[in-house]
Structure formats: structure tokens, C-alpha cells
Design goal:
Organism: Candidatus Falkowbacteria bacterium CG10_big_fil_rev_8_21_14_0_10_37_14
Protein name: Molecular chaperone
Oligomer: single chain
Structural class: mainly beta
Strand order of the largest sheet: 1-2-7-6
Pfam families: HSP20 (PF00011)
CATH class of one domain: Mainly Beta
CATH topology of one domain: Immunoglobulin-like
Number of strands: 7
Family: Belongs to the small heat shock protein (HSP20) family.
CATH architecture of one domain: Sandwich
InterPro entries: A-crystallin/Hsp20_dom (IPR002068), HSP20-like_chaperone (IPR008978), Small_HSP (IPR031107)
Distance between the termini: 82 Å
Shape: elongated
Length: 143
């Protein structure tokens, strides 16, 4: 068991956040970037992925699908930052992001469509038709 230094002037919630963040994967701990949150669900004919990208120019986002893995990457740029501001909290994350998601079924990536509305990117990826087993008849040859 390690000793915890007593710091009476630190907000107890900040200590809890720090402890929680120490348990996250290293890629999530980087404060200069972020990982967009997603919702993924399956419709009758397509897999739908919605990513929350508020404040990000859709023109700066790249989407690719390869081997049933969806990749979303882009960059959130800070327009201007005033260095002399006296921040009490600075939680808005800026920088590049990358999200890779294994899709739950085989898809037709070349037919995917993406639409950005009110800070939400909605990607619709048609499902590939299921491959049905083919029965092969055996031909008999008489000698």
C-alpha cells in the first residue's frame, strides 16, 4: 500500500478524477487530444455509427472502412488562444483524434454514406449480403 500525501487545499473531486484517469489507457490520458464518443446500432439493411464531433469542421474529418473496421480521424483546431487568461478550468480538448471501431458484421464499405448535422456525424454502412452455403452435387463417373 502506498502513502497518499495529505493536501488540504485540493478539491476532493480533482483527486478522484486524477485517480480515475490513472486507470485509463495511456492513449486516453493525453490531454492534448480526445476520442470522440460514438453510438453504433444495426438496422435491417445497414450498420449506423453516430459520432459526436461538435465544433469540428466536417471537411477536416476522414472516414475509411477496411476489413470491416471503421476509422474516423481528424483534427479540432483552436482558432485563437489568449495566453494571459486566468483559467479556472480548461477541459475543452483540442488536437487530432483517431477512432477505430470493429463493425459487428460484414459491410459494403464502398457504399457507405456520411452526413454531419448539428455536431453529430452519422455514418450509414450497408451490410453485405450473407454468403449462403453452396451445395455441390457429386457426379459419378462409371468406368
Amino acid at each position: 500500500m502506498s502513502l497518499i500525501k495529505w493536501t488540504p487545499f485540493i478539491d476532493p473531486f480533482e483527486e478522484m478524477d486524477r485517480n480515475f484517469n490513472s486507470m485509463l489507457p495511456a492513449s486516453w490520458q493525453n490531454q492534448d487530444s480526445f476520442v470522440p464518443s460514438i453510438d453504433m446500432y444495426e438496422g435491417k439493411e445497414a450498420v449506423i455509427v453516430e459520432a459526436q464531433l461538435a465544433g469540428i469542421d466536417p471537411e477536416q474529418v476522414e472516414i475509411s472502412i477496411e476489413n470491416d473496421v471503421l476509422c474516423i480521424k481528424g483534427e479540432s483546431e483552436k482558432k485563437s488562444e489568449v495566453e494571459d487568461k486566468n483559467y479556472y478550468r480548461k477541459e475543452i480538448r483540442r488536437g487530432s483524434f483517431f477512432r477505430s471501431i470493429q463493425l459487428p458484421t460484414h459491410v459494403l464499405g464502398s457504399e457507405a454514406e456520411a452526413v454531419a448535422t448539428d455536431g453529430v456525424l452519422k455514418i450509414s454502412i450497408p451490410k453485405a449480403p450473407e454468403s449462403k452455403p453452396k451445395q455441390i452435387k457429386i457426379k459419378t463417373v462409371k468406368k
